[in-house]
Amino acid sequence: MFRTLISKRRQNLVIMSTRRVLLVADRPNWAYDTIARALVKFNDDPDLILDIEYVKNGKRLLENIHRDYDLIFFLGWQTLLRNESYKLRYKFIDKKKILTGIHSHHAWDGRASSPDKSIPPPIELIMFLKQFAGVNAVSRRLYELFLGSGLDTVTYTPNGVDTSIFTATNEERVNNELRVGFSGNDQHDWRKGIREFIEPATRMDGISLKLAMPNDGHHVAPDQMPSFYENIDVYLCASLSEGFSLSVLEAAASGCPIISTRIGGCEDLIIDGVSGFFVDRDVQQFREKLMSFRDDHETLRKMGRQSRQITNQLWSWKIRAPAWLAFINSRLRALD
Predict the structure, then answer these.
(1) How confident is the model at residue 3 (pLDDT cuts 50, 70, 90)?
(2) If you write DSSP's letter for every residue of 255-324 in order, what string do you get?
(3) Where in the sequence is the domain holding 97, given as residue range(s)?
(4) Residue 173 confidence (pLDDT)
(5) What CATH code is carried by the domain that includes residue 134?
(6) Are residues 228 and 326 in the same domain?
(7) Mean per-residue pLDDT for 165-190?
(8) Are 155 and 184 contained in the same domain?
């Protein structure tokens, strides 16, 4: 009987040491969901259970399941809002059990951020975020911006990419034309610059543009995106602002040099002149870099290999997920 009691106590200790965290994304197969699935896949902590649920198209209501978890991690802070005001949507959840993240500028900057200008977040947003157990930011620029604005609970956890899914399988990427790629949502074209910069920059002899967008006849299913990147030579990012673009990371992991404006995570990822180029938001500058790749196949291949190597060594989820897990675990310890 004594041994039985000891066994039961040990079982209880095991149960108590296991923590459960719910990762809440906006909807399946979008950016937050990609991050959530990567955290589940690369979680190597046997005492940390990560589940995923969705604000839209979710199978379970948060009101019914939130008590089953030690922390609720809303990947993007916008999903916490009620009626586009800085009011908490989920009042039934203890604020000290909520984690959330900052992934972009455009949700609060009035479209005023640009590669050479970062608009500070409003004090209302800082106060809104301060009431939660912790906040993470996915780019160094966002982290420094919010830390400098008074959010002392913010943690830098940059995005990563699954380099076992996005791979550079084709060394001989060059054919008779330079294949330029872009992936994104054209609903944000004012920020992405597809029609203003990317399309005009690629209207040249020997250059073709490949798009992966939800509509306008350019839809590519999520499971076909690795093939999309394998069949382009270089990736363009003409954004006014970004947090840390998953598309840029995926293209880089697939062996594409990146030509980008100086925004968000691209500043962290790209080594100018080694794995890609930084340019101003100017059609002619994009054209000049594209022509240099079109006319110099060896440089294109060399920079593509560097892009893959740097991403694989520094930005794979295997490397980056531990910072996210440490962020989560540090907040779990604070609950004890």
Answers:
(1) very low
(2) T--EEE-S-HHHHHH--BTTTEEE--S-HHHHHHHHHHHHH-HHHHHHHHHHHHHHHHHHTBHHHHHHHH
(3) 12-160+317-335
(4) 52
(5) 3.40.50.2000
(6) no
(7) 83
(8) no
